[in-house]
Write a structure and sequence with these properties.
Length: 97
């Protein structure tokens, strides 16, 4: 709750709230422009589906490669996220709800 943002100094509390607000806004932009889902998932669901994925590094022919542990059914969807993120054009224009 809000008690976790109550720091000893005013400026420290302001900085913590600003960082939390920026993180929330970045996730909202990610949800709006990358996921383009018909369902408005909560931020915890988005975090679970996109960021909470096991992975490990492996050396392949002298290069370090990130191996993502993702079920085959979800790989197409996950790769689609990268393709969609490459197609986003800036500046971002937000729809007015």
């Amino acid at each position: 709750g809000l008690n976790s943002f109550s720091l000893n100094e005013f400026y420290a509390t302001e900085a913590a709230l600003t960082v939390a607000m920026m993180a929330y806004n970045l996730m909202a932009i990610f949800r709006l422009f990358i996921l383009k889902s018909e369902v408005q998932h909560t931020l915890s669901t988005i975090r679970f589906k996109t960021f909470a994925i096991g992975a490990y590094f492996q050396k392949v022919k002298g290069k370090t490669v990130l191996k993502i542990a993702l079920a085959k059914q979800r790989r197409k969807w996950f790769n689609g996220l990268w393709n969609t993120s490459n197609q986003v054009q800036t500046p971002l224009i937000f729809p007015i709800a």
